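Schema walkthrough. Field components (list of strings):
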Amino acid sequence: MARFEGALARASARVGLVPAAHAEIISRVCERAQFDAAALAREGRAGTLAIPFVKQLTAQVAAVSSEAARHVHAGATSQDVIDTGTVLCLKPACARVAELTVQLGNGAAELARRHAATPTAARTLLQPALPVTFGWKAAVWLSMLARSLAGTRNAASSACILQFGGPSGTLSSFGERAGAVMEALAQELGLPASWVPWHSARDRFARLGAELAILAGVAGKIGRDVSLLMQPEVGEAAEAAKAGRGGSSSMPHKRNPALSMLALEASQRAPALAATLLAQLTPEHERGLGQWQSQWFTLRELVCATASGTSAMADALEGLEVNVKAMRANLASLLKDQPQDAFGAAGAMIERALGEWKAATSPGTAP
Amino acid sequence: MARFEGALARASARVGLVPAAHAEIISRVCERAQFDAAALAREGRAGTLAIPFVKQLTAQVAAVSSEAARHVHAGATSQDVIDTGTVLCLKPACARVAELTVQLGNGAAELARRHAATPTAARTLLQPALPVTFGWKAAVWLSMLARSLAGTRNAASSACILQFGGPSGTLSSFGERAGAVMEALAQELGLPASWVPWHSARDRFARLGAELAILAGVAGKIGRDVSLLMQPEVGEAAEAAKAGRGGSSSMPHKRNPALSMLALEASQRAPALAATLLAQLTPEHERGLGQWQSQWFTLRELVCATASGTSAMADALEGLEVNVKAMRANLASLLKDQPQDAFGAAGAMIERALGEWKAATSPGTAP
Amino acid sequence: MARFEGALARASARVGLVPAAHAEIISRVCERAQFDAAALAREGRAGTLAIPFVKQLTAQVAAVSSEAARHVHAGATSQDVIDTGTVLCLKPACARVAELTVQLGNGAAELARRHAATPTAARTLLQPALPVTFGWKAAVWLSMLARSLAGTRNAASSACILQFGGPSGTLSSFGERAGAVMEALAQELGLPASWVPWHSARDRFARLGAELAILAGVAGKIGRDVSLLMQPEVGEAAEAAKAGRGGSSSMPHKRNPALSMLALEASQRAPALAATLLAQLTPEHERGLGQWQSQWFTLRELVCATASGTSAMADALEGLEVNVKAMRANLASLLKDQPQDAFGAAGAMIERALGEWKAATSPGTAP
Amino acid sequence: MARFEGALARASARVGLVPAAHAEIISRVCERAQFDAAALAREGRAGTLAIPFVKQLTAQVAAVSSEAARHVHAGATSQDVIDTGTVLCLKPACARVAELTVQLGNGAAELARRHAATPTAARTLLQPALPVTFGWKAAVWLSMLARSLAGTRNAASSACILQFGGPSGTLSSFGERAGAVMEALAQELGLPASWVPWHSARDRFARLGAELAILAGVAGKIGRDVSLLMQPEVGEAAEAAKAGRGGSSSMPHKRNPALSMLALEASQRAPALAATLLAQLTPEHERGLGQWQSQWFTLRELVCATASGTSAMADALEGLEVNVKAMRANLASLLKDQPQDAFGAAGAMIERALGEWKAATSPGTAP
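Field assembly_structure (string):
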């Protein structure tokens, strides 16, 4: 939020609305401003966090120059500073989520390649169906990850933009220089400008929320399969044993699919969080009662959940112990009347999934 | 579902797996096959609808040629015929939703243009904020519709693809001709082929569900604003009076925002339906217990809700009565201490939104 | 809905507001009235289904007596007839759900008793933990069913009440006889009266929705465990084989947990449906825009889903094949270093659960 | 969590399983134990928070007596200490929520009494319907609060119970003394014992979550109505003006319904949080993958949201400014052709609602 206010002062100075010296002072104070979080929480509860925030910031600027202090937050509204502040947090968070997705996808791609010819049983409704290869199974995971990587990046890129409309949304206090301030502010913050303000147009956060939930779901799907394969009665794959992971407080003999559990936890929490974002699209007029505010908590929980699940399965696939022997033995025992080596188009399917992944991760595609 | 089976027979014939004459018989029977829906429901409840469906179809083919009957559904699995059947319904449904979105957006664009200079009060937290123009308000709606139109079309285009994997997902019973059958089948049905089967990869339906919920939310947002403006105490806009719409069973004097109500109804039901689709991403192995099945009901409800809300607001905006005088009068009374004609960048914002809409609806963009 | 209108006429006659002969005519017409559903849908879409419904009913009464026709629906409002009509459907539906719950619980109780001393492995995070008995496992299911039975009955009993407030909610057109008509109407319909109308107080449906979702979840939990035990690699329990159930359209060798799948399907759809009902509590003033209407579809889907899941698991437990030998063998193999017969308080726990079930199903407890 | 471990040591001593002196040491260390939260988070992420917690606690006990340290956590499992710890937080939180509900209900009751004869317009679909009294409107709110108070207390009372089953759920390591330890532990903690453990039976938290969401919805409903009445175009009621509440960071002239906004914020976030709890009922076997863990975050968010909304509206109703003149003036203007004083059974309805509230708050009813 302080970064926004500093950039606003500099942008206003660039178009001649604020003296350069004052902007310089505001900008410098913003870089090292300290806030009393308890006071923010206490006063912010009465309506908007921006009011006590601007008050505290203005006081710190006024301690340097009371004249400069008059320009703090000038022309902006609560939602400008809070939404842009949110975006400045979301952007690196989404970049990190994309990194984790790449790591997870690379793990799946490696399994798809390495086990392209490793026979295993396809299972439908938890019953053995027909033989497939384990690489093909990983390729199905990979195909989802390719779409999720593209979807998350696109949604993040669309959501991580400047919010700037002023109290009415039309930047009215900037008069004819409104557009110029907006472009300068966008440049200062390294965010795309949004000419049409999104104070009451919350679809971009909803779309990002859905993509995050889908990604959490994809990580959960991999966790589902790994945890089922790790049942000792099945024994076809296992998360790597590691000190301090997957133990039990009461049963030292246990080896738990702790990473899969984290991914499934996230996948079970994400859909309803996304639903909250989808349900905030109908605020009253130019700012509604509660829709905007409810997005803060929800986005935080959703981004953290998705990152947690994706990161867990990235770790899990990197160290995954695949028991090729057990796969063959189960197959022979479960599907003894079926041909054990008829994999149809499995090989070609794996190639396609690898191709989709390569396309999704090639340098030109990241926004 | 019968279209799928007919196309499968023809595709199999094209690659030499089924005698052309038999494929011809199956194909013709499929065109006019009749099904006992009650029997399908009764038997389908025991696991999968595809079993009684294939049984009934096979009987009808056998009545013509028992030899042809042996080729019905050959190499396919329940999920191939049900998912592809679903897609064959979804595709025109989504096209219709897109049409309704275009109609709704054109209505918003027309308001944005016509009322680009009509002053009205921006309202935040249901309190008057500052003057804006009504055209600017419509432009904010329009900016969301431009994104929703693109989003819905992309999601529909990604979701409306062939499902074809056979019982294991690898098309194993087609051996080396698997790819050829798939491509031929895709051609026969006019659907893109999906090399990697999506039996257990349900992200595309989740993404489509989220876009539909967002669109329902955007229509609901417009309905929210219209219904608030139509309060007699505000009186700034009204849905057109029309015989048989917006009446009351007990109060003949009433004129209700019946179309806004339909849009808000849909927007209140859509988020949780989308959440159900987002929660079905973690099925067990190659086909899960219930995730796939729960999508049928949910997609049906969600597509219908979205179409209902979008259609209602398309009608509402086409006939919207805008009371320019009341807007000016309220503005003068509510914000008498504010300049009544300082609209900042409103005009430029409207132009941008119209430009985004034009881009979204230009011929080249629809998939 | 016709039952409501007939009862309203009789109730109004009982307090002297409608001539007895006219009430008699209305009442008789209501018993055999026929409605054009397509016209209802077409016209109802314009706002409320009650308007075309009352129109069609009035026409049928007018065909007998135009004077009687003037009294149709007199003093009531749309929401009175639609909500009460909904309740008249919900009441037997909830009674049926309770019956299915009793059947399911009796199945669990029987397993708890029969297998009180059958050793099996407790499994946490899909890994073997320590020995328990299979009867104890069923007792945990049973403890939830006892609470769900009580909860569903209480919620249904609270929700299945008369809606009667007239257009304003105060029954104003009945003047001093308002209370008397309400009591008479409640008697005629066999529903409790609700003095405070619930046009805009929708918590009872929300509470019922939550209980139905919980019950669907409990049935799903049993389905989860049964389907995991039925994995051939585990083989400790199985749904009974039955012609036409659990087969595959492509793999005749398969035996699927088809009933568990139905229960899990319902449990995966119910939470979001309940969330929709929980989200409809904030309508605008005395009747909101869409909150009420969205409950119709949602309650229908939710009741059907819950009944489907409960019924499926009631069937599953009745025929459940428990493989005591496999349980012992797995236990010996999975937990060979653990004492195989240390069940702590398992026996006492089973007794408690059976006692709770007995209390929940004893004659005095059903509302 | 430390309270649980201390009580467990004392309970075990009472039944003779742990030397009294050792229990005394453990108990005293637990009272003042300090934990390294960062280490807990870091290690807990690997599976369960209980492992590093017990490790840190054991070290602190060992610093006093290495022999006592051997008895820390003895016989318990992760879920016992975490669930019981959660319950020990939930219990006072729910008591506080109930207090806030009483305060909110008392405010509504006061309005119902004071304005029993204050005429105002009923509004349906945001259009004037017929005259009612403002007291009657408050009585409808009150009727929901009476049910919510009872519902929340019952659900909290059912959910706030001891969790104690040991690693298998059967308390197997306590042998014949299992029941005695459980009863003693329940006594020590002032919680009801639960003979049947609820490690995998999560319906009680789901039921509590639904009640909290309903209460949040009821507070939101009151906020909805207050915020609509506070529109300056309506002007019939207003939240009390107060320094530092309801202001705007950019428009000093504004007076916002800030408390209603808080209530609506909570009501828009609560349903999906409750849905997450409703969706966690189907864990795998005796402990599932993620269902339990997802409840921690969700319960925290939900309790806080509900308390926030309820508290906000309790404040709002206490200071509510009711503009009786504006109500009469609007009524005369909006419904001039209607009798302005026909309130039917409104008075009797208010009495009933007050009676229900009195019953809900009478000393005997609180669990």
